[in-house]
Amino acid sequence: MKIHVLEGYIQHIYLVEHETGLLLLDGCCRADVELVCNYILQLQKPLSALKLIVVTHMHPDHAGGAHKLKKLTGAKIAAANAPSQWYRGIDGVMMHLSDMALALWVAGRKRKAKRNLWYPRQLSPDFFLADGDSLPYFNEWQAIHTPGHTDRDLSLYHLPSKRIYVADLTVKVKGQFVAPFPVFYPRLYRQSLAKVKALQPHSVILAHQGEVLAEEIDFNALIARAPKQPMTHWRSVKKKTKKALGLGS
């Protein structure tokens, strides 16, 4: 097993090479689709070698390229067995737009040119993963439900090497590991941190900071500092957008 790390539009991309095929640990951005396909070809493999794309949650840098990559490669999509869609209803439409705008803001901070990040707000997975399920085609990997950032976050645990990809469970800011932004479900978020800590992984793979030894993360301090109330940009964005559209408060 080899993990290839690609520098994506605003996040790292982890393409896992097994003898049986390729596994993409997250759905990346729409802007990353060409990069992923070209890299697969550089490995001297057909695009059909990509067997599975896991979408850990629905934000643009984790789900944005999934459907397009499926169309180009024939890969299947797997996601958590969360109820309904994340971006549902009129609120979902507005949140989807605001999340793409936030992703473009992050790209600007990284001095990246503006790209088209549009992607379907509704995901159509081929596989729904329960907590503890083995990944289809790649049974060395286990899906771990780690909600809090959203209601359907997944972490992906490689059992033989004790490496765990946690997507946005934590980020590193000014040398310190902190909670991501947003955190919609604070209680679930703290439980998810405790769950990952209890696994005692050897290393932790982060969507935005690469792979670090687990001992570098003080999970107890991270749990203690975690927000106790929802911490989201969406509350203010929703209020301002509704007001602009004349929909009331």
Automatic annotation (TrEMBL):
Keywords: Hydrolase. The keyword Hydrolase applies. SMART domains: Lactamase_B. It comes from Pseudoalteromonas maricaloris. GO terms for molecular function: hydrolase activity. This is MBL fold metallo-hydrolase. The keyword rRNA-binding does not apply. Pfam families: Lactamase_B. Residues 10-208 form the Metallo-beta-lactamase domain.
